[in-house]
Write a structure and sequence with these properties.
By secondary structure, the protein is mainly alpha-helical. The protein has two domains: about 80 residues, no CATH class; about 210 residues, Delta-Endotoxin, domain 1 (Up-down Bundle), CATH 1.20.190.20. Helices cover about 70% and strands about 0% of the residues. The chain has a two-stranded antiparallel ribbon with strand order 1-2. Helix 7 runs parallel beside helix 9. The radius of gyration is 23 Å and the shape is globular. The chain starts with 12 loop residues before the first strand and ends in a 35-residue tail after the last helix.
Length: about 350
């Protein structure tokens, strides 16, 4: 499983010559100085320590893309150029801070910064898109893991007949569900208001509609009654929209198309309780990818083969569960894998699902 946490940036230091006691002073490269200047223009306060050149270079790459996008939108007029510079400065600063948050594993703040970038308009780069996805995936992932653990404890206490404990557990589970609902509604609003309307490429459209399906699915995991039905319907519609675009714009070996098939099949199995449709979808995606392995690009080889492995693992799991049921054992008795999310911990009740994308710092 891919690693989703990156090493903390290391700042180089040089000995500063002063008339008083010797002090450590952070060294700065021209690239870092440019980034710090951009942050200053946006009036964003950051620690005095410089970022690593690796992060800074990524920010500058985003700067160039942002300037190009905004230049097309605003034109060369002096006043428009000033507006463009201010927007680019904000764009650069927020992306830079999101990278810092990722390194520090402060994902709630990372969400805040990337949400601001999304609301500035324009289509996000692949790296910016992944930053936003990683941020939300970790924020929601910790809460989904907590919900599973608490739900499992609740079931055990109910079997013991411990009414007092069950009441307390239900109240705490409700608190987690409120947090989950808030996060999911937040990302769905960003998708509907900013990301999907600005998506121009087929790849972006598939990515965002799949993401929309994922977060409606997360809502359906803990909802009940009409709420669950509404979330399931919305998830199915989003996955279907993503699939329609993927089948025309992306190759069968494209990691985003494979990830869509993986999560859509999990939706059929877990939310709609349709193992036959889940297995059919997963097998079709796997077979289509195998048939076109020659078209697999070197840059996406690792991601694509990882998701193909998860598709195969799920097929093995689901078919063995069906066999166990036929022999009198419950499907829940079958060994299950935890999804490949950075923030989730293994549980016995989980399934393999697409990993969170890695941002390239």
């Amino acid at each position: 499983m891919a690693s989703f946490f990156h090493g903390h940036p290391q700042a180089g230091h040089t000995r500063g010559s002063t008339s008083g006691p010797a002090r450590w002073r952070p060294s700065t490269s021209p690239v870092q100085s440019t980034v710090v200047a951009a942050l200053g223009q946006a009036s964003v306060g950051v620690p005095a320590l410089p970022a690593s050149g690796r992060i800074a270079a990524g920010v500058l790459k985003s700067c160039q893309v942002a300037r190009s996008r905004l230049a097309k939108a605003t034109g060369p007029e002096p006043r428009a150029t000033q507006t463009m510079d201010r927007q680019v400065s904000v764009w650069d600063a927020r992306t830079f801070l999101a990278r810092l948050c990722e390194q520090a594993e402060r994902y709630d703040e990372m969400v805040t910064y990337m949400k601001e970038v999304a609301k500035l308009g324009g289509e996000l780069t692949v790296d910016e898109r992944n930053l936003l996805s990683v941020a939300y995936k970790n924020v929601v992932g910790t809460r989904r893991a907590s919900w599973r653990i608490i739900s499992s404890i609740e079931q055990k206490e109910e079997s013991k007949g411990s009414d007092k404990h069950v009441s307390t557990i239900k109240e705490y589970r409700s608190k987690i569900e409120t947090e989950l609902e808030k996060v999911c509604e937040d990302v769905l609003n960003v998708l509907d208001e900013s990301l999907i309307p600005n998506a121009a490429s087929g790849e972006s459209k598939v990515f965002y509609h799949k993401m929309k399906g994922d977060y409606h699915r997360y809502l359906a995991e803990f909802a009940s009654g009409e709420k669950r039905k509404g979330a399931a319907t919305a998830a199915h519609e989003a996955y279907k929209n993503a699939t329609d675009v993927a089948q025309t714009d992306l190759t069968p070996t494209h990691p985003i198309r494979l990830g869509l098939a993986l999560n859509f099949s999990v939706f059929y199995y877990e939310i709609l309780n349709s193992p036959d449709r889940a297995c059919h979808l997963a097998k079709q995606a796997f077979d289509d990818a195998i048939a076109e392995l020659d078209s697999l690009s070197e840059e996406s080889y690792r991601d694509s083969t990882l998701i193909m492995q998860l598709l195969r693992d799920n097929l093995t799991l689901w078919t063995s569960s069906d066999n166990a049921e036929a022999e009198g054992a419950g499907a829940a008795d079958a060994p299950k894998k935890e999804e490949g999310e950075a923030a989730d911990k293994p549980t016995e009740e989980a399934k393999a699902e697409e990993p969170a994308p890695e941002s390239t710092n």
